[in-house]
Design brief:
Largest sheet: 6 strands, mixed
Number of helices: 9
Radius of gyration: 18 Å
Number of strands: 6
Oligomer: single chain
Structural class: alpha/beta
């Protein structure tokens, strides 16, 4: 099982969020003399990662919701495959889109999301952290639009076309004859992002995750 000191569980809305946070954690490890490696075997079907900052060994697990109807299942996943299996402190990061940059996160405390939070509390989660992206995860990526344009080999446009991040990203790709694909097919672009710029400028509280991984609790 490993001599883990604590656990972090990411509940992700989709595969693109998984690609983003996996690349972010890899960048963070590379820039802080930490180790971030994929587990050497499947944990009952779950792919997991191990973070070592020199003083702690942290187990990191991802759960992709996929659709809103699957949100409640994430509570059972956390209880059975995280909290009960590994008796140690756990923090859960909820990574989702608010659908509109004008919306707050109120609706993510209602209905299935409310049940999920209850399940997480019941499983004695140490802390639940909202990493809510305004509109799309692509909006967060576009805080480094210069890096995306470098990846595509194009000049940074004076104005991005599209209402939401996903539409803007697709328009950027189309401008040079390419097609934007979500999920794992976006990995090579995501890995080229300037994550420091994103940490400094995006509305996500990524500093909380940075502090957790680089300091002993």
């Amino acid at each position: 099982m490993g001599d883990y000191t604590r656990g972090i569980a990411f509940v992700l809305e989709g595969t693109t969020e998984k690609v983003f946070y996996r690349a972010f954690l890899k960048w963070l490890a590379d820039h802080n003399n930490c180790s971030f490696v994929k587990g050497d075997n499947l944990d009952n079907g779950d792919i997991y990662f191990v973070w070592n900052n020199g003083s702690e060994i942290i187990l990191i697990k991802f759960n992709i919701v996929g659709t809103v109807t699957q949100v409640s299942h994430s509570g059972k996943w956390f209880a059975n495959k995280c909290a009960k299996k590994y008796r140690m402190p756990w923090k859960v990061f909820l990574c989702y889109d608010t659908d509109s940059s004008e919306n707050d996160i109120t609706k993510f405390y209602q209905d299935d999301w409310k049940l999920l939070r209850k399940d997480l509390v019941k499983a004695k989660t140490e802390e639940i952290v909202d990493l809510a992206a305004s509109a799309d995860i692509e909006d967060i990526m576009l805080y480094d639009v210069e890096g995306i344009c470098r990846y595509l080999g194009i000049e940074v446009p004076k104005k991005l076309t599209g209402r939401k991040g996903k539409a803007k990203m697709k328009a950027l790709y189309r401008s040079c004859g390419n097609t934007y694909h979500e999920g794992d097919r976006a990995e090579s672009m995501v890995e080229m992002l300037d994550f420091q710029k994103i940490v400094d400028n995006s509305p996500l509280d990524l500093e909380k995750l940075v502090a957790l991984l680089n300091t002993r609790a």
